[in-house]
Design goal:
43% of the residues lie in helices and 15% in strands. An 8-stranded parallel beta barrel has the order 1-2-3-4-5-6-7-8, surrounded by 6 helices. The mean pLDDT is 95. The structure holds manganese (II) ion (MN). The site of manganese (II) ion has 4 residues, from loops. Manganese (II) ion binds next to loops.
């Protein structure tokens, strides 16, 4: 898959705050009708997911799915306490099984530690627990062709992978062929010295990308310059999912919204938000393809050269 043919995705929390059948239908149907290829389903509590219903709706509307979560302190894979780490592994294993049963392509998010503000650095012992467990989770995921993306997030949400370089290092430690780095422009804007350079240096390790504004609201209303980001993705010929992630107090998931600190109303109409994000991403992709074609005439994304 080459840059320009990326599956475009939308995070379910742009539309709905629960995964009842009515909400799942609304989120999946609007994603499909607005022209997305996949929906990212948050799975912090897999017991809330009706697997058969989800699989049936994805089939009915003809779109794909990815799944994401952040662990909690009680299921922290990077805990020094082997029992806590084992609880995290059991949770991830359950999520992988759901991913298999709904035909998901990617499992991503903060799956290597809790998604929380830590008050001390990660320890070697905790990191070893996390890496060993993720190796087993990646093996299980590989049996269902699931790619596992470790999401690099800002310092207030993990103490393990805050930069793309740390994400690559974590992937190398795990060492599984289906492990990739999951980057997110919202987090990169906080932590990276140079977002475009970080993407280029991640290179083939990049396997999943979240687009979000500096305030996680409507695309184009914040301070992130997206042109260099898309140009960098074109430069490395990134062909994986491009997923828009945005949150507002308009749509509340009682668990996830509080963890992410979604206190403000940054938009009110989710359908308008996600239709605009699709147009925004398509325009940026097209411009980046053209720019890459000018810089590199043999670039395969440029259709003039077949
Ligand atoms: Mn994200």
């Amino acid at each position: 898959m080459a840059f320009g043919q990326n599956p475009l995705g939308i995070h379910a929390l742009c539309s709905v705050g629960s995964w009842s059948e009515a909400d799942a239908r609304r989120a999946i149907s609007s994603a499909a009708q607005i022209g997305y290829d996949l929906i990212e389903i948050p799975m912090l509590d897999p017991d809330r997911i009706d697997v058969a219903m989800t699989a049936r709706l994805l089939e009915e509307f003809g779109i794909g799915a990815t799944i994401s979560l952040g662990l909690e302190p009680a299921t922290d894979l990077s805990s020094e306490d082997p029992e806590v780490s084992a609880r995290g592994e059991a949770l991830l294993s359950k999520v992988v099984s759901i991913g298999r049963d709904i035909g998901a392509t990617h499992l991503c998010g903060v799956i290597y530690s809790a998604m929380t503000k830590y008050s001390r650095p990660a320890t070697r012992k905790g990191l070893d627990h996390s890496v060993a467990a993720l190796r087993r989770i990646c093996d299980q995921a590989a049996a269902s062709d699931l790619t596992v993306g470790v999401e690099v997030v800002n310092r207030y949400e993990t103490n393990i992978a805050n930069t793309a370089a740390e994400g690559v290092a974590l992937c190398k430690m795990i060492g599984a062929p289906n492990t990739r780095v999951h980057l997110d422009s919202y987090h990169m804007n906080i932590e990276e010295a140079d977002m475009a350079r970080a993407i280029v240096e991640t290179g083939d390790y990049l396997g999943y990308f979240h687009f979000g504004e500096c305030h996680r609201g409507y695309l184009g209303t914040g301070s992130i310059e997206f042109e260099p980001v898309f140009k960098a993705l074109a430069q490395i010929d990134y062909g994986g999912p491009l997923v828009f992630e945005s949150f507002s107090s308009e749509v509340v998931d009682p668990q996830l919204s509080n963890i992410l600190g979604i206190w403000r109303n940054l938009w009110t109409n989710g359908d308008d938000l996600i239709a605009h994000a699709r147009d925004f991403m398509n325009a940026q992709i097209k411009a980046a393809l053209q720019a890459e074609g000018l810089a590199r005439p043999n670039f395969k994304g440029d259709t003039r050269y077949g």
